[in-house]
């Protein structure tokens, strides 16, 4: 049986009076690609950010690889090394070269030798098709290239789980494809992925499971074929008909 | 025009050795006080953005006092205050007074530039497993320093010119030498203008240094 990479029980999160996540139960198996869909404000990004503790839950349990994580007791920096994250706005470090971005965490956090980090970083950049950009600064890259560097930067820590927070939402339409292609390759290699996106084509083609969220709750989840073609809940039907 | 009288030009040229020495004193005062001010400024900037309230209050009080009182008062308080408890030269009491003064302004410059770096940068660092301190040192501060450089350069120029107040404590920097020469020759105007020329030269050099650093840091644009 494959290992459960993420398990969330009765997760609640509020921002002040705003109750954003309501008793969420959620899990991700090893090598599974889960796509979170839902209208903006439904809580999908907040949920993703709770998974690597960029947001702190108010209540509930969170397990990473079977181990319950307590933010007060556990070293979150260690936890985050296993959980890579890609942001909507890339958040590349503008004062470092492309290769410098990719090498930063392995050398500074893991203490890996510069020569080795450089070699591995270059390989990762080749993998996302940007080997020739290693010595450029991020300001010289297109949005799609920036996002692919961000993916390589996260992969450099050799995470076991990758979180994607609307990775193509800030891109010009013609640049979306290259980022999705990189993500597809990653899924094929067996990476465990949780993806918040509005790209229904990607969800249909790559996801093992699609989760529809509305108003801080998971309304429905299932294989993409089932969920897209035969949604059970009225809310899901309404959402899908509004976007497809 | 006064500047065309032979008197001024002869004075400027003949006194170059004396003023060159005084300029070194001015530069030493400026360099020492600014270096200390940068350390003080960084420390109080961190206190001001700290989540520990008493530290924030302390930083606010410091900035309030420095901004609310004249520099000359601060320098004299340092001079009379420090020399009473501690054998310290006029040079060092002025240097510390200037550092105490500029530190408050530099603290505000650093605070603003640190806070101007987007939240996403810190999140990216943390999401890679970097600690808060490491993220500050490797990700936030290098970018904040770059953004702080133009206002810092401005503050350095102010610091350089304010070092002329050391004349009132008897430190032989440019302004002190000029007023002494003026008193000796009964020709204040000539010597004040000579001192102005020397300040202009020093500020020009300082501007060159700052813009060279700015250029060097702009490679990532």
TrEMBL record, chain A:
GO terms for cellular component: plasma membrane. Residues 6-240 form the ABC transporter domain. Its main location: membrane. Keywords: Amino-acid transport, ATP-binding, Cell membrane, Membrane, Nucleotide-binding, Transport. GO terms for molecular function: ABC-type amino acid transporter activity; ATP binding; ATP hydrolysis activity. The keyword Ubl conjugation does not apply. The keyword Cell membrane applies. Belongs to the ABC transporter superfamily. This is Polar amino acid transport system ATP-binding protein.
TrEMBL record, chain B:
One of its GO terms (molecular function) is transmembrane transporter activity. Residues 23-210 form the ABC transmembrane type-1 domain. GO terms for cellular component: ATP-binding cassette (ABC) transporter complex. The chain crosses the membrane at residues 25-47, 59-80, 86-107, 189-213. GO terms for biological process: amino acid transport. Pfam families: BPD_transp_1. Its main location: membrane. It is found in: Cell membrane. It is a multi-pass membrane protein. The keyword Transcription regulation does not apply. Keywords: Cell membrane, Membrane, Transmembrane, Transmembrane helix, Transport. It comes from the Bacteria. Belongs to the binding-protein-dependent transport system permease family. This is Polar amino acid transport system permease protein. It comes from Halobacillus aidingensis. The lineage of its organism: Bacteria, Bacillati, Bacillota, Bacilli, Bacillales.
């Amino acid at each position: 049986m494959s290992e459960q990479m993420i398990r969330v029980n009765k997760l609640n999160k509020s921002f002040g009076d705003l109750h954003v996540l309501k008793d969420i139960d959620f899990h991700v198996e090893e090598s599974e690609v889960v796509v979170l869909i839902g209208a903006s404000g439904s809580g999908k990004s907040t949920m993703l950010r709770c998974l690597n503790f960029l947001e702190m839950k108010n209540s509930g349990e969170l397990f990473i690889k079977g181990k319950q994580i307590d933010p007060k007791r556990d070293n979150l920096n260690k936890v985050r090394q296993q959980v890579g994250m890609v942001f909507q706005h890339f958040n590349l470090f503008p004062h470092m070269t492309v290769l410098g971005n990719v090498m930063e965490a392995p050398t500074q956090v893991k203490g890996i030798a510069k020569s080795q980090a450089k070699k591995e970083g270059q390989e990762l950049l080749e993998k996302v098709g940007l080997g020739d950009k290693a010595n450029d600064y991020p300001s010289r890259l297109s949005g799609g290239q920036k996002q692919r560097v961000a993916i390589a930067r996260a992969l450099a820590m050799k995470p076991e789980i990758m979180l994607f927070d609307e990775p193509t939402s800030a891109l010009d339409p013609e640049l979306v494809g290259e980022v999705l292609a990189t993500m597809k390759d990653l899924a094929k290699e067996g990476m465990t992925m949780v993806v918040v996106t509005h790209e229904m084509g990607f969800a249909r083609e790559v996801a093992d499971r699609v989760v529809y969220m509305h108003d801080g709750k998971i309304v429905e989840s299932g294989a993409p074929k089932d969920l897209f073609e035969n949604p059970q809940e009225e809310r899901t039907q309404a959402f899908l008909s509004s976007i497809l | 025009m006064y500047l065309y009288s032979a008197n001024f030009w002869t004075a400027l040229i003949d006194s170059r050795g004396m003023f060159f020495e005084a300029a070194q004193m001015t530069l030493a005062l400026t360099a020492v006080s600014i270096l200390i001010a940068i350390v003080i400024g960084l420390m109080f900037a961190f206190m001001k953005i700290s989540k520990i309230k008493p530290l924030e209050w302390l930083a606010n009080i410091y900035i309030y006092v420095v901004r609310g009182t004249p520099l000359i008062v601060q320098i004299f308080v340092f001079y009379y205050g420090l020399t009473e408890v501690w054998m310290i030269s006029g040079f060092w009491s002025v240097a510390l007074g200037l550092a105490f003064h500029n530190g408050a302004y530099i603290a505000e410059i650093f605070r603003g530039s640190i806070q101007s770096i987007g939240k996403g940068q810190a999140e990216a660092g943390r999401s890679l497993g970097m600690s808060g301190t490491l993220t500050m040192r490797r990700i936030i501060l290098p970018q904040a320093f770059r953004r702080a450089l133009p206002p810092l350069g401005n503050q350095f120029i102010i610091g350089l010119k304010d070092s002329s107040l050391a004349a009132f404590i008897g430190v032989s920097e440019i302004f002190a030498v000029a007023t002494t020469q003026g008193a000796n020759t009964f020709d204040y105007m000539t010597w004040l203008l000579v001192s102005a020329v020397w300040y202009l030269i020093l500020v020009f050099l300082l501007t060159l240094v700052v813009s060279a650093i700015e250029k060097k840091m702009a490679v990532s644009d």
